[in-house]
Amino acid sequence: MRKFYSIIIWSVLLTILPGYLLAQGIRITGRVTSAQDGQTLPGVNIVVKGTTNGVSTDANGAYSIVVPNGNAVLVLTSIGLNTQEVAVGNRSVVNVIMQEALNELSQVVVTGYNTTQRKDITGSIASISSEKFKDLPVTSLDQALQGQAAGVQVTQSSGTPGGGISVRVRGNTSISASNRPLYIVDGVQVQSGALSSTDGYGGQNDNALALLNPNDIESIQVLKDASAKAIYGSRAANGVVLITTKRGKANQKTIITADVQRGTTDLVKRPSLLNSTQLLELQREAVINAGEDPDKQGLIKGVTDGVNTNWLDMVLRKGIYQQYQISAQGGNERTRFYLSGNYRDEEGVLLNNRFSRMSGTMSIDHNANSKLSFGTNLTVARAVNHRVGGDNFLDGVYSGATRSLPYYSPYNEQGQLYGPADANYPGFPNFNPVGEALLPRQQVLTTKMLGGVYIQYEFLPNLRFRSKANVDYNSVIEDIYFPTGTATGGYVTSIGQQGYGEYDTRLVANFTSTNTLTYNTLINEKHRISALGGVEVIKRTNRNGSVIGKYFPSNDFTYITSAGVVNEGSSTLVYSGLFSGFGEVKYDYKEKYLVTATGRYDGSSRFGPNKQFGFFPSASVAWRISEEEFLSKTGFLNDLKLRASYGFTGNEQIGDFKFLGTWGATTYSGSSGLGPSALPNPNLQWERTREANIGIDASFFNGRLSATIDVYSNLTDRLLFNQPIPLTSGFSTVQGNIGKVSNRGAELTINSINIDRKGLRWSTDLNLSRNENKVVELATTEPIYAGYQASGATATNVVLPGQPLGTFWGLKFLGVDPATGNAIYQDNNGDGRITPDDAQVIGNAQPKLFGGFTNRVSYKGFDVSIFFQFSYGNHVMNLTKQTSVNTGASLGFNQSIDALKRWQKEGDITSVPRYISGNTYNDYLSSRFVEDGSYLRLKNVTVGYTLKKEWTSRVKLASVRIFASATNVWTFTKYSGPDPELSTLDGSTTAQGIDFNTLPQVKNMSAGLSVTF
After folding, report:
1. CA-CA distance, 699 to 80, in Å (whole number)?
2. How far apart are CA 435 and CA 729, in angstroms?
3. Residues 858, 153 contacting (CB under 8 angstroms)
4. Residue 795's closest CA among 803, 787, 804?
5. What is the pLDDT of residues 146-202, one digit of tens each?
């Protein structure tokens, strides 16, 4: 590590000292900003006219240069910006506003601990401006990524407000460790994934990122290759998402903006189920086919179907969505500020399901003098999530409504809910889904504080030191009570049938301290060098506590203090941390040849003492071919750059202290004691991903058309995995590093301005991505089963060498025998029998192609945006169908209208076997339940109108815009279920793409008003 730092320090000093020792005259400082949006511009070359004395602006657009006298003239140049000459005069501070010639080249991009112009990028980075999602009613910032960036696959796991979002950058790199990207907000790693720790919601998690207000975001950058993300080392293998929030700008009058949005939400599609008469006919047929009398089983025409309840109508509703925001920003040369307050409230489409959030943000930046600047930022948010029972649970609300028999009613004649004590309460497996929605209290109260301070000081010309301290603090309280009218509180005998209460608390806090040293210089107007070195310390705290109460005296006493028995509880406290040193050096010659070298040295408490530290290097080169003489005079070509990168990143997203041999509490012969619970592995280390990338950036016709193409090959080895060991050791597995996973793919992004004349502007954005994921190697060739257990097969999913993650496993369904109506399965092993040994690969959840397509048109105050998102070639396992078209395996569930296509008589040609009561053979898990999950979705349509300035100026308003927005408007798909985008096991890597009674997406219809003062 000392050697690593020595190289960085000597490189910086050798570059600085010659210019510093020779410097004489007047020292000029300043900042360069864009005339279009006020953004500071890094990487602008500044030369004293008539000399070779030059510098380059730093990440904040600041510069410092020595001129011989007040008659000096500064020449500012940068590809994508109009060259500008500025006389110094008698000024010591010279701030310059530059006009952009080509917007996409001068666009400022955050690249980690630094910023740069897009023209200087040598890695693969996708940029998403807030303009692309400002009108979308997204709850969390990760939703805003969907369909917007090549190589970034975003799946919303269900229609639950504030629920989980799966984000994958260039595929899945790990089997058992997390595949979520690293999220950095203004330089601070923030908590992502689930914060809630209780079960009972199926596979649907909550989402920590829903606590952050997307309206406070200025831009999002997704770092995709090693050159771009190796600066984050051991945390970067799954990609890095950099979020830059809005801040005040220099020389900007105070702008106050108020936004209001209101609308409704509803399911994109409801499943079609049988009514009482249809179901009774089907059940009677199944019983008769089994050789029994349906009348003796209570399946009597005109009696059993005397009640006809549409349970979906009973638990679903149109939700109300509303959001209000007010913000203010402004500043002068010395002080800049941004303030905002936001309230969002969304009723879920399920009864009693609701997510509301209040948040406030403040940021202040101040230049004390030409050398010293400092600032602070603070975001405080509080969310209340009223949750309801989730999918794949018999007592879930939506899952219960899709399964419940229509013969029963939710209410008695007095309008009271039926409960477990009532004679007309059906009991297992059909609980009252209306009661399961309305009666329990399942509140999650979350408070988030994200804040920090920084100070920056210029020791020498263009040598700046920056120190930051930040904290991401998350406090979670889960308050749960199930009364006796619910399955948990009144039916389950193991907890007493007298109410059930649970109170959980969780504290997740990350403290980050970052110190960096940066230097920028320009030598002989040709050689531009920038260097960065830094040290970072991250300390994580995870504190949990829970207590459970049972046997409540009545449903009027619902808190743990009233429980008759409080005999379960736990508490934990875990500290973990990361210590890192990192550096980056960039060099370009005449803005034609560019080189970047990056390295990070990480030490993590999550790994064994023998492998606690690791080094993650990367290097990249770029050649701006358009600057060569043979292309420089081409009229239509503005920029053509060839990029290549190679490097290593890591993944440390596993539980803490897995390398330790741990002990746990146990009992023996009625006495308590300690016993070993896990074996040690002092050689445990992070996963490592080798990444190679080649890309081309091109711009044509004065920026009217631009394109980016990337191809990549990534290989992850040393997978964090529970390695099987002989049972004679007393254990079945030990946490180890085994196996390899590869991802190879190609990405295409095209941006065009099709028309831009006489007030009419039409632009198009298209991104396409293809990723081929494959398990290359495991500890053995034996399959590893995942997902759910299933009849006729060992499990729904399998991990196999040569197959992608998310592979479905089961019998191959060959059709229905027209003579008998029975299912025909492939006898894969040829033994003459159909058993789980005949199971094979029957599909996978990985798409062959995915992307997004957006068109924006504006004309004289009117604007229209149309956004399509799509996925092609992926499969969905419709596990709902194994229950809703179960061929009579169980008469306790309602059936889909697809059951009407069943085989009924000899000669029938159909894909649905005949119904036989109690017969499970025809309902084995097979390719009958695997469907094409490809879809094209009209994700959003927004229409807006900005009032003319002569109208708004009369009431002293800067601007007024009204708009209407519709989300998830239309979906084209062959999938038979309500929604092909679902994933029951939210965030799962090995069991993606399963639909098991999961709440579909919702469509949002809203209108809004934005007023700027």
Report:
1. 11
2. 49
3. no
4. 787
5. 889 999 999 888 888 887 788 999 999 999 888 999 999 988 899 888 888 776 666
